[in-house]
Amino acid sequence: MSLRAKPDAVVLNGLPAFASPYGTDVELVDFLEQVSAHLCRWLSTAANRHPLPSLGCLPDIAPERFGRNARQLLEDLDQIMDRAYQPNHPGALAHLDPPPLTASIAADLVCAGLNNNLLAEELSPSLSLLERRLCRWFAERLGLPQGASGVAASGGTLSNLMALVAARHAAGLQHDPNACIVASRDAHVSLQKAVKVMGLREDALQLVGTDDQGCLDLVQLDWLLQHLHQQERPVLAVVATAGTTVSGSVDPIPKMRALCDRDGLWLHVDGAIGACFALNPNTSTLVPGLKEADSVTVNPQKLFGITKTSSLLLLANPSHLKTVFGTGLPYMETSRDGEHGGEIGLQGTRAAEILKLWLGLRQLGEEGIQHVLQSALERASLFRHYLNDEKFMLRSGPLHIVSFRPCGLLSDQLVTWTADTRQKLLRQGIMLSRPFYQDQYYLKAVFGNPHTDERLIIQLAQQLLASI
Ligand SMILES: Cc1ncc(COP(=O)(O)O)c(C=O)c1O
What we know:
By secondary structure, the protein is α/β, with parallel strands linked by helices. Helix content is 38%, strand content 12%.
């Protein structure tokens, strides 16, 4: 048997399964153009659709014997798209899932085509370098000390986990099952996962109360740290949240830093929501103290529309990452310009998600970054203004998230009011979420959607006022 010098591409039903390395495939170009046209149609008809379509039939799951041609593949895609959550709808206000940035969509497509691997430099030379440089740029913008840097990961949950594993190692507590983590009761549930994955005790997540603004209570933190010390429970990290999930509250990071310094503790800031506000000088005052953290999670996917996923973990001293996650990669060449991506994080093979973050921010520019941040804040403040806080109890920090419930309703009534009102609004194309927070149901609106205009905000506030 001999291999032909120029093997035929696998062509099924007229569409090459792999792009020819010898010349342009007109069928492939045509297919990608059509896919792109379908996607643009899906995005551009969002306002006539619904943010949350009903889940009808899906296409068959199993591959057919002889595969599907380009037209049939597009039909398959259309069926999934028609039933997908529609972030581009102006009424999509439920979560931290904004419309996708156009340059980020393009970069995602190119990322798939490049199919590079951030595991090792030789599998992603330009992209490994891009990731290192962009992490350094972010660290600098957040005000972290010179030399600070980090690594990208699939989402904030993973960034938080890696930070805590690094903190534990730095404290020399990797073999101590009694080690614990201290955070506020409003911290994200990803910390609970971290405790499980790290094999810590069930009570390893020690929670501190919050004040009426949803910010960690410093007196309680001080007391708890002393109490844990007396109990001989070592603390591997204190976690501050810059932008809590329900109210967008920002913990008092500088004062938490002072307590950590007193006790020699690692301070991790979960800035999955809030750290992006530090990218612009006009909004950075909303999240003071990031520069004093040992590690920071930042999730540009949650606000800038960088397509999922886009999360960075930044460390004041990034060498901790190599110490914890470095295994040696004996089947790879040594990297020339820094560490292999697979040696400074938990993930092995990893897509070059940095491309869409980089291109997205390049598209926005400084002015665009500022506009995204400020307009989100303005929409939230308009909503607070129209909602009338005498009738509603608001849970809303300084960012773009507003949770609320009518004053004077009992718990049972709140269950019904939140569920019914959410459904009513959904029928009008406005999607809010319904968090369960401190033993009560709330409705929550996240104002990161640039298509949400004042008219819609007024409509939302009027509907809410009419519902009580
Ligand atoms: C404050 C905070 N941290 C972490 C996360 C986890 O991020 P991800 O869902 O990207 O894993 C979230 C998610 O909403 C969050 O709100």
